[in-house]
Write a sequence for this structure.
């Protein structure tokens, strides 16, 4: 934790803001994505993505006497559309027993970590692994590998990625940068980050199962840190799964700022 909390330009509270609050608006938008926002609530619904992604309750601070009805209506909305979704119950969520209520409704709990690392140096990566930034020439390959890795449909993902490549920075609050790594000249892993004003929010790192254990994940983390540092960003953050990517990021110099539950339906 000391590497992060001792950052020369950001206080501990500012780091927490970058890890938890700033990424709430880091999501990309498909043509059919609906953003539902009101005080204490931020949600996205994307009917074209059936198997996960862009369907999430990102933030919910619900009055205790209204929570049950809001939960029921939200779950019904996703289920009627046949969508897999998740409910982020991170810091600031309410009521205090939100997780218990979601479990009673049949959602499955998983734990994540909000993690951060100062971008003051890079990570030693295998020079034999080729990592390329994604542009119009390789975006379709990137989308295919990404869809295979996350076991989701490629059509909507490819349309989104083409739009991001064609018009980077079109959303004023974020800019997404995408990378693809190859092993023995075969596309094998993908990752992205969203360039926020002060931090790089690392997302979407996935390695195809047959290529795991060869340093591809590490190489993609390094590529994103190098790119973010060149853009003047001072902090890298990520929301990492407790049982999968969090231990890897910890070995790569990231520290845990907080833990929080996610609920999947």
């Amino acid at each position: 934790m000391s590497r992060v909390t001792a950052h020369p330009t950001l206080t501990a509270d500012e780091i927490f803001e970058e890890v938890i609050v700033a990424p709430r608006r880091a999501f990309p938008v498909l043509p059919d994505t609906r953003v539902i926002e009101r005080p204490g609530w931020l949600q996205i619904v994307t009917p074209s993505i059936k198997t996960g992604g862009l369907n999430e309750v990102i933030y919910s601070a619900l009055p205790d006497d209204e929570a049950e009805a809001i939960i029921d209506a939200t779950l019904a909305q996703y289920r009627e559309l046949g969508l897999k979704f998740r409910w982020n119950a991170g810091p600031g969520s309410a009521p205090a027993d939100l997780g218990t209520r979601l479990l009673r409704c049949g959602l499955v709990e998983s734990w994540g970590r909000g993690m951060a690392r100062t971008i003051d140096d890079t990570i030693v990566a295998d020079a034999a692994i080729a990592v390329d930034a994604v542009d119009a020439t390789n975006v379709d390959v990137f989308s295919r590998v990404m869809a295979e890795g996350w076991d989701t449909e490629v059509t909507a993902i490819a349309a989104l990625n083409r739009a991001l490549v064609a018009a980077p920075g079109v959303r004023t609050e974020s800019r997404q940068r995408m990378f693809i790594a190859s092993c023995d000249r075969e596309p094998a892993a993908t990752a992205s980050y969203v360039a926020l004003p002060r931090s790089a929010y690392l997302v979407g790192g996935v390695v195809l199962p047959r290529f795991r254990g060869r340093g591809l994940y590490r190489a993609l983390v390094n590529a994103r840190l190098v790119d973010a540092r060149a853009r003047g960003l001072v902090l890298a953050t990520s929301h990492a799964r407790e049982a999968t990517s969090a231990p890897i990021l910890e070995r790569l110099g990231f520290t845990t700022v907080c833990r929080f539950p996610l609920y999947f339906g």
